[in-house]
Amino acid sequence: MSLPAPTVHSARLRLRPFVDADTESLYAMHSDAHVLRYWDAPPWQDPTRAQAFLSRSREMAEEGSGVRLVLELASDGSFLGWIGLTHWDPAHHKASLGYVLAETAWGHGYATEAGRAVLQWAFDTLDLNRVQAETDTRNLASARVLEKLGFRHEGTLREDCVVAGDLSDSFVFGLLRREWQAA
């Protein structure tokens, strides 16, 4: 079952499917070592990685396992980053949330605003009961975004991945439909 990527609007943002014209902005963000300092993959050094990412994003939607959306300013279309739901499991009514924002977009509330918009779409359209998110334990800004969205810290995965050559722990957060509705 495919999962067509929607276009979702919020007060300041438009979240939309990727297009080929996004490759340059996507590459610039994913090649920035500071932006990816908590990411479990090294910064991109080859511009063709951006096109491969777009292809994989389209494949995810076609196979029905998830969606990734460009996060841009509604006022002028400025690229801010991306947000996505992956590991969509309709049988168990769950998915995972992830996002990356360019450094120029940090500290403006965009991740929280985009998260709210995607979660509203996901709970309403995909009939989710649970959304999970993970973040490096050192990435306190991302943990705060998840808490603002209503996620609860559920545990820590010890030495879960390798980040920049070092073993790293990950926080696990979860958000249930009833918690979303109560908020």
In short:
The protein is α+β, with helices and mostly antiparallel strands. It contains 5 helices and 8 strands, in the order E-E-H-H-E-E-E-H-E-H-E-E-H.
Description:
With 183 residues, this protein is of the alpha+beta class. 30% of the residues lie in helices and 34% in strands. It has helices spanning 23-30, 48-63, 110-125, 140-148, 177-182; strands spanning 8-9, 13-17, 67-73, 79-89, 94-101, 130-136, 152-163, 166-176. An 8-stranded mixed β-sheet has the order 1-2-3-4-5-6-8-7, with helices on both faces. It is globular, with a radius of gyration of 16 Å. The two termini are 31 Å apart.
Key structural traits:
single chain, 183 residues, alpha+beta, 8-stranded mixed sheet, 5 helices, 8 strands, globular
Total count of strands: 8
Please write the string of helix (H) and strand (E) elements: EEHHEEEHEHEEH
The class by helix and strand makeup works out as alpha+beta
In the sheet with the most strands, the strands line up as 1-2-3-4-5-6-8-7
- Mean of the pLDDT scores? 95
Give the low-pLDDT segments.
Answer: none
Percent helix, as a range, is 25-40%
Give the count of helical stretches: 5
Overall 3D shape: globular
Q: Quick one: biggest sheet?
A: 8 strands, mixed
First-residue to last-residue Cα separation = 31 Å
Computed Rg: 16 Å
Strand content: 25-35%
